[in-house]
Structures are given as structure tokens and as C-alpha cells.
Amino acid sequence: MKLLVTGGAGFIGSAVVRLAVARGHEVVNLDALTYAACEANVAPVAGSNLYSFEKADIRDRAALDRIFATHRPDAVMHLAAESHVDLAGIVAVIACLRCAPSWGGSGRVPA
Ligand SMILES: NC(=O)c1ccc[n+]([C@@H]2O[C@H](COP(=O)([O-])OP(=O)(O)OC[C@H]3O[C@@H](n4cnc5c(N)ncnc54)[C@H](O)[C@@H]3O)[C@@H](O)[C@H]2O)c1
Questions:
Q1: Cβ(2)–Cβ(67) under 8 Å?
Q2: How far lies 59's CA from each of 42, 45, 74, 91, in Å?
Q3: 40 exposed, middle or buried (CB, 10 Å; 0-12, 13-18, 19+)?
Q4: Nearest C-alpha neighbor of 82 from the set 18, 29, 42, 32
Q5: N or C: which end of the chain has fewer CB within 10 A?
Q6: Residues 2-30: tens digit of each pLDDT
Q7: pLDDT tens digits for 25-72?
Q8: Contact (CB, 8 A) for 29 and 5
């Protein structure tokens, strides 16, 4: 499976990235590398041919379109957030879901 992880250089996302690669999945790490990111977190998998990195902001629709068109992930784990700002994460989730039809998803946003 090809998995796209947003926030894959963060605390939770990087653990997901390392575990997924260790289990043989292809992983695309999409992260803006804010102050919260720690690239050392993904150093153990950085040399793997299963791993790729895209520096992008999840609010940048054009960048997301390019990244999804390039990598065609089977699944997305959305872990990019300022973890202390809950609303920011919710807004980003809704933005991703609204974009989903052009990536092949349903685009349905839960009420
Ligand atoms: N850390 C915990 O114990 C914990 C527990 C439960 C839930 N969560 C949730 O998990 C998610 C991730 O938490 P975390 O602790 O790993 O956060 P974190 O702050 O360690 O990492 C967030 C990552 O997201 C990236 N990021 C931030 N804004 C971005 C943007 N606009 N575009 C692209 N990348 C961006 C940062 O560069 C960073 O690498 C959050 O939604 C948080 O609420 C965390």
C-alpha cells in the first residue's frame, strides 16, 4: 500500500512513517517543516526506497494537487497540525476532504 502521511516529521506522524516503512509500505511524508517538525525523527527511514518526502503546506491546494497526482496514494493519514490548536486541525481535515474528488476520493464531508 502507498500511504501519504501529512505531518510525517512530527511526533505522531514520524512514528507512523517509521512503522509503515518497517512493515513494507511505501510512504510519502508531506510536511511543511514548521517549528514542530523534527527531521531526525524520520532519519531511520530517509534512505529507504519506500520513503519519499514532500515539503508542502496542507493549505496549499495547488501543491496538494501536484503531490497527489504524482504519488497517487492509496490512503492518507492526516497528522499535520499545530497540536495545541485543535480548530486548525479540523479546518485542515475539512479542506482535505473537500479536495478529495479530484484525487479520486468521495469528497463527502461528515456533518
Ligand atoms: N502528541 C500527542 O500526544 C497527541 C495525542 C493525541 C492526538 N494528537 C494529534 O495528532 C496530531 C499530530 O500531533 P503531533 O504531536 O505529532 O504534532 P507535532 O506538532 O509534533 O507535529 C505536527 C507536524 O505537522 C507539521 N505541520 C504543521 N502545520 C502544517 C501545515 N500547515 N502543512 C504541513 N505540515 C504541517 C509540522 O511541521 C510537524 O511536523 C495532532 O492533530 C494532534 O492533536 C497528538
A1: no
A2: 23, 26, 21, 10
A3: exposed
A4: 32
A5: C
A6: 999 999 999 999 999 999 999 999 999 99
A7: 999 999 999 999 999 999 999 999 999 999 999 999 999 999 999 999
A8: yes
Q: Which atom of ligand 1 is found nearest the CA of 58?
A: 32
By most ligand atoms within 8 Å of CB, the mutation choice from 60, 79, 85, 99 for ligand 1 is: 79
Residue owning grid cell 517509521: 18
The cell for 47 is 534512505
Q: How far is the CA of 18 from the centre of ligand 1 (A)?
A: 15
Q: Which helix (H) or strand (E) holds 98?
A: helix 86-99
**Distance in angstroms (rounded) separating the CA atoms of residues 59 and 88:** 10
Residue 48 and residue 99: Cα distance in Å, rounded?
A: 29
